Amino acid sequence: MARSQESMQKKAVRQKKEKKRKDKEKRRLESKDQDKNSFDDMIAYVDEFGNILDSPPDPSEKEEVELDDIEISVAKSDPNAVVDTLKNGVVSFFDESKGFGFIRNLENDQRIFVHVSSLNEPIKENNMVTFEIGKGPKGPAAMNVSVVR
User: What pTM was estimated for this model as a whole?
Assistant: First the structure.
């Protein structure tokens, strides 16, 4: 059988593929040569202050510490200390028809949700109130809300 003749187009495509394959092989060999870094090049050192260094810290600058000087403990809380859970705030918004609103905490300007079920007495906008912060269904909520007189 006779061999089929190769057209100019087929020859150009074949040469292009061959060039692409050679370029890819060349790039692979170059990257393989670059990846031969030593393990020492990859190591980083950390000094006593947490700074990253390229070289190990100087052992002559090392400070010796007596084991008896190290104290590990938890700060003791005072059991007689009274924790004031009552917060002060201003009613920034309250909708009586829907039964909810928001109180602006005077300590940190945080907006706290308030529901009519947690009120001790009726409130209106701009009233000064005292309240406790509790967990509501969608985040912090005001509990035991009372008007300051």
Answer: 0.45
Domain boundaries, the chain: 87-147
Nearest 5 degrees, angle CA 84-CA 87-CA 113?
135
**51-98 pLDDT per residue, tens:** 888 888 887 877 888 888 888 888 777 777 666 688 899 999 999 999
One of 1.10.10.10, 3.40.50.20, 3.10.20.310, 2.40.50.140 is the CATH number of 87-147, namely 2.40.50.140
Provide the total of helices (H) and of strands (E) in the chain, helices listed first. 2, 7
Q: Which residues contact 96 (CB under 8 A, 6 or more apart)?
A: 116
Q: Rg (Cα) of the chain, in Å, rounded?
A: 37
